[in-house]
């Protein structure tokens, strides 16, 4: 039993019958990642929109490497079944569009795919970066994909997701970690989103020889706010993927912090990240572990008040913890050899920083500020072959959301394409993917992990 009574009810034997009869919205059980799980649980359909597509070859080669059966005809009978039997994924190479007329080929491929994709299936559209087109017709066609994907994601059922990857010119061979993330069940709660690969020029790296079961092997990571909630799950997920983890939290959370550090076989550092000495203390501690490869800025606070009732101390404490502390630590990381070449910074923003939230002007300001920080820091990190990216969680089942009034909580859960809240592990999986060395071509991105919550963009 979860604490989501509605989901438990509509998934129970009698509840399913009643829900079907009176038309209650279903709540799909999402397939989530477990070590050893295959990338896809069945066959894939792979389409191309134009003869100029530049990524289908890369996708086909990845799928054949991992033993997935691939068909180009979206009506192909699969495994002795019919032309309507279920598939695990539909992927369309939508690069090379020259005008909106080319979109018809994508519709022709995706219409049968939408009917065939199975529970927790994956639909991926891969297109060119709109901003890299100067012709109005080309740019219009590229941008159209966003509306198509966001709308299709609202139609997909049974926990299937629909997402869009924009691939910069020349980055087609730098897609592997991104394809693996979006196709696998690590991205269970990422739906209706768009992400760019290779847009900040100058990236370098390789995914040759990566152990995809332990993609963080040999890397040392810091996670702030690791005593509980999302941070504790991030620490466990990074450990599962092979990292050595340094867990940071305030001294008042010392016991819980020690438990997380014990669970992950890592070290605990009691530190208030807003202290003047926090950046230097963090770097000194990391130096004793041989330096740092990954920094996850997860610690965050809310001090919610309507703006009309806001006071300066509350305002400042939110901006200090959620934004200023990260800026100060990043400055120190950029200036220090302790933060290794090829390092990864991952920060936690929020839907409140994108769409805004009543009672959360300080929090929303801090979380939007985090996005500005990512935008400006991404190009600065290129010379270190490092990256910075953000996750923007929506409604995640934590102690914080369990304490919400019932109406707010139910709206947060149901007003999304997944009709449920996400789990801390959904945020953690996204962070762990950004943290991989193999994600070298993903820089300056903000990815919502919110089951396509209907609030905001
Ligand atoms: P949480 O309150 O359960 O955990 C936050 C942790 O940060 C706590 O252990 C706390 O002690 C620590 N922390 C606070 N101030 C600190 C400081 N000055 N120095 C060091 N550690 C400090 O919160 P959570 O729900 O797990 O959220 C984690 C992150 O995710 C936050 O940045 C939050 O804003 C963001 N987020 C959460 C949700 C959600 O639905 N829970 C949604 C969007 C964004």
TrEMBL record:
Q: Which InterPro entries does the entry link to? A: KR_dom, NAD(P)-bd_dom_sf, Sc_DH/Rdtase_CS, SDR_fam
Task: Give the main EC class.
Answer: oxidoreductase
Q: Which Pfam families match?
A: adh_short_C2
- Residues annotated as signal peptide: none
Q: Name all Ketoreductase domain ranges.
A: 219-399
Tell me the domain of life.
Bacteria
Q: What is its EC number?
A: 1.1.1.100
Query: PROSITE patterns in the record, alphabetically?
Result: ADH_SHORT
Q: Name one GO molecular function term.
A: 3-oxoacyl-[acyl-carrier-protein] reductase (NADPH) activity
Enumerate the SMART domains for this protein. PKS_KR
* Record keywords, A-Z: Oxidoreductase
Keyword Cell cycle present in the record's keywords: the answer is no
The Swiss-Prot or TrEMBL record describes its family as follows: Belongs to the short-chain dehydrogenases/reductases (SDR) family.
Question: Could you identify this protein by its name?
Answer: 3-oxoacyl-ACP reductase
Q: Which organism is it from?
A: Actinomycetospora aeridis
């Amino acid at each position: 039993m979860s604490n989501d009574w509605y989901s438990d009810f509509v998934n129970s034997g009698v509840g399913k019958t009643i829900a079907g009869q009176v038309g209650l919205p279903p709540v799909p059980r999402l397939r989530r990642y477990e070590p050893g799980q295959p990338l896809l649980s069945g066959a894939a359909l792979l389409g191309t929109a134009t003869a100029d597509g530049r990524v289908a070859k890369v996708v086909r080669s990845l799928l054949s490497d991992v033993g997935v059966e691939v068909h180009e005809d979206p009506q192909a009978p699969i495994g002795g079944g019919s032309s309507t039997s279920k598939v695990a994924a539909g992927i369309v190479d939508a690069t090379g569009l020259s005008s909106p007329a080319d979109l018809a080929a994508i519709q022709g491929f995706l219409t049968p795919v939408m009917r065939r994709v199975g529970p927790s299936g994956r639909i991926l559209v891969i297109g060119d970066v709109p901003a890299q087109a100067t012709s109005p017709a080309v740019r219009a066609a590229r941008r159209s994909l966003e509306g198509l994907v966001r709308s299709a994601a609202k139609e997909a059922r049974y926990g299937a997701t629909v997402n869009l990857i924009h691939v910069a010119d020349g980055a087609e061979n730098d897609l592997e970690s991104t394809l693996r993330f979006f196709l696998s069940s690590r991205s269970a709660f990422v739906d209706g989103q768009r992400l760019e690969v290779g847009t900040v020029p100058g990236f370098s790296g390789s995914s040759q020889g990566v152990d995809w079961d332990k993609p963080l092997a040999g890397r040392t990571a810091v996670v702030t706010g690791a005593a509980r909630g999302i941070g504790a799950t991030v620490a466990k997920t990074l450990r599962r993927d092979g990292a050595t983890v340094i867990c940071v939290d305030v001294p008042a959370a010392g016991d819980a912090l020690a438990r997380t550090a014990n669970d992950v076989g890592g070290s605990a550092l009691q530190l208030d990240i807003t202290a003047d000495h926090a950046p230097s203390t963090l770097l000194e501690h990391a130096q004793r572990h041989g330096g740092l490869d990954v920094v996850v800025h997860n610690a965050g606070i809310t001090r919610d008040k309507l703006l009309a009732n806001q006071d300066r101390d509350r305002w400042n404490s939110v901006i200090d913890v959620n934004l200023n502390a990260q800026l100060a630590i990043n400055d120190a990381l950029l200036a220090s050899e302790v933060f290794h070449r090829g390092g990864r910074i991952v920060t936690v923003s929020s839907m409140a920083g994108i769409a805004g939230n009543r009672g959360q002007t300080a929090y929303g300001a801090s979380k939007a500020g985090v996005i500005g920080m990512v935008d400006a820091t991404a190009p600065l990190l290129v010379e270190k072959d490092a990256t910075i990216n953000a996750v923007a969680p929506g409604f995640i089942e934590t102690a914080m959301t369990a304490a919400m009034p019932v109406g707010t909580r139910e709206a947060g859960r149901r007003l999304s394409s997944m009709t449920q809240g996400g789990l801390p592990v959904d945020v953690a999986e996204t962070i762990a993917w950004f943290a991989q060395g193999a994600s070298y071509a993903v820089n300056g991105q903000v990815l919502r992990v919110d089951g396509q919550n209907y609030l905001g963009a």
